[in-house]
Amino acid sequence: MRRVFLIVLDSFGIGEMPDAACFHDEGSNTIKTVSRSKEFYLPQMEELGLFQIDGVDCKESGSKIKGAVARMKESSKGKDTTIGHWEIAGIISKKPMPTYPNGFPKEIIHALEQETGRKIICNMPYSGTEVIKKYGEEHLKTGNLIVYTSADSVFQIAAHEAVISLEELYDVCRKARKLLQGEHGVGRVIARPFIGEPGNFTRTSNRHDFSLMPPENTMLDILKEAGKEVLAVGKIHDIFSGKGITDYVYTKSNDDGVAKTLEYMERDFEGICFTNLVDFDMLYGHRNDIDGYARALTRFDKQLPEIFEKLREEDILMITADHGCDPGTPSTDHSREYTPLVVYGKQIIPGNYGTRETFADIAETILNYFELSLKKEGISPINCIKSMK
């Protein structure tokens, strides 16, 4: 019974890509930045081969490794969560999703106000924590929706849970998602609920993403159509709008994401468990919290032995990322970086498999293990798995 556990360490980049300057991300290197923290300690990932990936020079490491590793290059024109995950699953997006450095057009804002019966405030790029500091009190007094964006293709709506219920906020986001199609088809509409009093607002874990529907089939669809299980942990279900997924659970933290993955590891199934651990990005990368990012990585590394212990004879563990988010640069946005791929299991042939031209090679590798294929030019499996029976 073949099972693949694919874990995305959200935003764990390993160095700027050749076109980083086009995204204003020169010098970005998430792993190098966090490796300088005294909180950074990844002995399990080191044994698997993380520090022997092409271009990773933040730590010397022994030559013998237990895993198969590769440096993944993003072929899609973007650096956001949706595009990154879609490419991991086999879709290469040649056109970037729209961004709004000057806020959203008046016609979009007016239409949403008409749909919801609530006025909109802000409508500018903002840090999520700063926007509620500035506009939270006004929102409490008026009930107006706080709409903001970032350098990514996102339409974010913040609301206090005591002013607008979660059900209403999610409904507002669904209405925004219907409006934001075609020319204004942003990657994600995100509900950003918060609590607290003026001067002490905090965002809650009740965030919810409303993504565009993938424009074509991914490895998830191919696996599902072949009768395999596709289990989603965290925001994976939202990123793919449920397409190709057979079962899913949401999570409240990285620890919760690992716990839910461990629960799925107890289940008898053939297919894939696809997990996103978002805290690296949401809590530390975007907030330029270097030590926090390093602590979160160290915490994940400490959890790996429990994951290893639950791996069965034909199980494969894959650890990767969807983009970078260097907490050491002035920017608080995602960064255009290579990502790591670390693969482990009894069926794996250890070694360094070089630099791959697309994240989609991950999808083809997984499908190849199940004797399936994307059947797309320019995408190829990484030959790190022993010959299939």
Which helices and strands occur, and which strands form pairs?
Blueprint (H helix, E strand, L loop, with lengths): L2 E7 L20 H6 L7 H6 L19 E5 L8 H8 L17 H11 L3 E6 L2 H15 L2 E5 L4 E7 L5 H14 L8 E10 L2 E4 L4 E4 L7 H7 L3 E5 L2 H4 L7 E3 L4 H12 L5 E7 L1 H7 L4 H21 L4 E6 L18 E6 L6 E6 L3 H10 L20
Parallel strand pairs: 1-11, 1-12, 2-14, 3-4, 5-6, 9-10, 9-11
Antiparallel strand pairs: 2-13, 4-5, 6-7, 6-8, 12-13
Describe the structure.
It is a single chain. With 389 residues, the protein is of the alpha/beta class. The chain folds into 2 domains: 3-94 and 213-369, Alkaline Phosphatase, subunit A; 106-210, Alpha-Beta Plaits, CATH 3.30.70.1250. Helix content is 31%, strand content 21%. It has 12 helices and 14 strands. The chain has helices spanning 30-35, 43-48, 81-88, 106-116, 128-142, 166-179, 219-225, 236-239, 254-265, 279-285, 290-310, 360-369; strands at residues 3-9, 68-72, 120-125, 145-149, 154-160, 188-197, 200-203, 208-211, 229-233, 247-249, 271-277, 315-320, 339-344, 351-356. The strands form 2 sheets. An 8-stranded mixed sheet has the order 10-9-11-1-12-13-2-14, with helices on both faces. Strands 3, 4, 5, 6, 7 and 8 form a 6-stranded mixed sheet that branches. β6 and β7 (200-203) form a beta hairpin. α9 (254-265) packs parallel to α11 (290-310) and α10 (279-285) packs antiparallel against α11. The longest helix has 21 residues, at 290-310. It is globular, with a radius of gyration of 20 Å. The termini are close together. The model has no long low-confidence stretch (mean pLDDT 96).
